[in-house]
């Protein structure tokens, strides 16, 4: 998140509002979001899911799109699901379960 465009930071912050309904944590804390960038009025988010065939795929993807579109200056969102590197529980932020 080294981009100087304030929309990039706003995009990452917005993505923390997208909760995986099965795990109860947001997609950033879970380590599911691999990249998020903004070019012009387009946000691009590269992410994965906990498993291929995840039944929450549509909910999470729609959540990512909605969160990104809520950022001022973003008019379109391109989402890309990838399976490499494969997600594992070690990708969850170390402090994810504190206060729960």
Descriptive account of the structure:
Helices cover 23% and strands 19% of the residues. By secondary structure, it is an alpha+beta fold. The chain has a 3-stranded mixed β-sheet with strand order 1-2-3, with helices on one face. The protein is globular. The chain starts with 5 loop residues before the first helix and ends in a 19-residue tail after the last strand.
Topology diagram in text:
Elements: H1 6-15, E1 33-39, E2 42-47, H2 57-69, E3 76-81
Parallel strand pairs: 2-3
Antiparallel strand pairs: 1-2
Short description:
The chain has 100 residues and is of the alpha+beta class. The protein has helices spanning 6-15, 57-69, and strands at 33-39, 42-47, 76-81.
Number of strands: 3
**Helix count, per DSSP?**
2
Low-confidence stretches: none
Round the Cα radius of gyration to an integer and report it.
Answer: 13 Å
């Amino acid at each position: 998140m080294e981009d100087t465009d304030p929309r990039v930071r706003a995009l990452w912050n917005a993505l923390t509002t997208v909760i995986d309904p099965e795990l109860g944590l947001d997609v950033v804390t879970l380590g599911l979001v691999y990249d998020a960038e903004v070019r012009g009025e387009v946000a691009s988010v590269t992410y994965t899911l906990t498993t291929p065939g995840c039944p929450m795929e549509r909910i999470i993807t729609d959540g990512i799109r909605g969160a990104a579109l809520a950022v001022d200056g973003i008019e379109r969102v391109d989402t890309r699901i990838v399976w490499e590197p494969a997600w594992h529980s070690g990708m969850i932020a170390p402090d994810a379960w504190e206060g729960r």
